[in-house]
Amino acid sequence: MICRLAIGLLSALLVQACSDSSDQRPTQTAPVSLTVIPIAAPEGAPGEMRSLVFRVTMTAPQASAVELAYWTSAGSATAGEDYLDITGELSIAAGEIESVVAVDMIGDAEEEAAETFTLNISTSDNALATATKITGTIANDDTACETPFARSPNPWLVKGADPLNFAHRGGVIDFPENTLYAYAEAALAGADVLEMDVYQTADNQLVVLHDLSVDRTTNGVGGVANLTLVELQALDAAYWFVPGVGTPHDRPAEDYVFRGIATGDKAPPPGYSAADFRIPTLEQALARFPHNLINLELKPDLDGMGNYEQQMAVLLQRYGRYTDVIVGSFVDEATDNFKAVAPCVYSYLPLGRGLEIFALFLATGEIPDVPEHITAQVPPDASQIGDEIPGDEPIPIVTTELVVAAHNANLAVQVWTINTCEEMLRMTDIGVDGIMTDRPLVLEALLAQPAGERTCEQIDKAGRP
Description:
Helix content is 23%, strand content 22%. The chain is α/β, with parallel strands linked by helices. The protein has two domains: 32-139, CalX-beta domain (Immunoglobulin-like); 164-447, Alpha-Beta Barrel (TIM Barrel), CATH 3.20.20. Helix 9 (421-430) links the parallel strand 17 and strand 18. The strands form three sheets. Strands 10, 11, 12, 13, 14, 15, 16, 17 and 18 form a nine-stranded mixed β-sheet that branches. A five-stranded mixed β-sheet has the order 2-9-7-4-5. Helix 5 (308-318) crosses helix 6. The chain has helices spanning 2-24, 180-189, 229-233, 282-288, 308-318, 332-341, 351-364, 400-408, 421-430, 440-447, and strands at residues 32-37, 39-42, 49-58, 66-74, 87-92, 98-106, 115-123, 127-129, 133-139, 164-168, 193-200, 206-208, 293-298, 325-328, 346-347, 375-378, 412-415, 434-437. The chain is built from ten helices and 18 strands.
C-alpha cells in the first residue's frame, strides 16, 4: 500500500512538473515571409558618404522578435573603393513588420557603369526569407547628358528576333496598374520593358500614374496636380483592380483581391509590402528596377510651374539612366523641352511629328531620317488616336511596308496597345520591334512557343499555356 501511494505521489509530481515546464515554454509562432528589397541609389559626389538603404519587410508581425544577420560581399563594386563592407544583426521587435539595413557608399567622379554588391542575410526560425542574396546597385551619377545619343547601332531594333514585351503600365489587366507590385510581377514573368506614365504632383513630385485623376484606380478622388505626394501615397492604388479584368467599379467586394493591402488591412503577398500597392514616385521606381528597361511617358505639365522636363532629366542623370530608357510624350512641346535638357536619352516620336511623317509615308512610301528620335511608338490603326485622322474606317498604320520603311530610316517600331493573342501574333509576323500590352502574360506565353509554330489556341486569357 505504501509503495503504491509512493508511486502515485511520484507520478502526480512528475505530471505537475511536466505541466509547469510546458506552461513556461514560449509559444511557438508560425514563420512569416521576410523580404529584403533590392535597391539602387546614386553614389554621391567625390568624398561624400551616402547610404544605400535596404528595406526589410515582413508579411505580418510576429509574437516574438525576428532576428536577422547580414553581411556584404563584393560584386562589380569594390569594397573599400565603392562601398564599405558591413557585418551585423538587427531585431524586428514583436508586433513590428519593418526595419532597414544601411550600407555606406563612397562617392567619386568617375564616369562608369552602375556597380553592384550583395547583401547576404540569414533569419531566425520564425521568419522565412524570400531571398538570402540581395543586390545593391550603386548608380553612376557623374555622366553629364549634354550630347545627343548615338543612333547607330540602334539597340531597340530587334533585327528579326521576337518583339520586346512592353508591360503597359505594368500590365493593366494582369496586375494593379502603375504599382511597384505590378512592375515587379511583370518583370518576373518575363516582360522586357516596364512602361510608366509620369505626372507632377501639387508639391512638384514626380509620380507614376496614368490618369489625370486618381478616381478610376484608387479609393480617392481628385486630380493628381491638385494633390500632394503625401495625399497620393495614402491611397490604395489597387483598390478597384480585378485580376484578368482591370478596374471595373461594379464587382462584388470579394473580387477586389488586393484591396486593403496598401492601407494595412490585409497582408501583402510574400516578397512585397503595403508600399508596393500605393502610387509610387518615379524615383522609387528607378531605385527598385535599376536593371530593367523602362519606357517613360511624359504627361502634360498642367500648371507649367514646376520645370517638369528638367526635373525628369535631373532624376535620370542621378540614376545614370540613359541608354536603358526611352522617354517621350504625345505632346510635342513636352518632348522638345525634354530633348533640350536631356539630348543623350533615347526618345520616341511625339504625336504631331509622327502624324506628319505618317502622312509623308502614305504619299511616298518612305520615312525621312529623324535623327533626334530612336523609335516610333504607334497604334496598329488610327482608331486609337481618335479624331486625329478622320475617316469612316480606321486607317491601318502598322503594316509590313511601314515597318520596312521605318527600319530603313533606323527607327524601331513599337506598337500599342495590343491585348488579343491573335493581334499579338499578327504584329509579330509583321516584324515590329516591340509590343505594348495590358496583358504581358499572354504575350509572354505566345513568345515562349517556338517561332514558326505559334498559335493562340492553347493560351487562355490569363496567359497560361
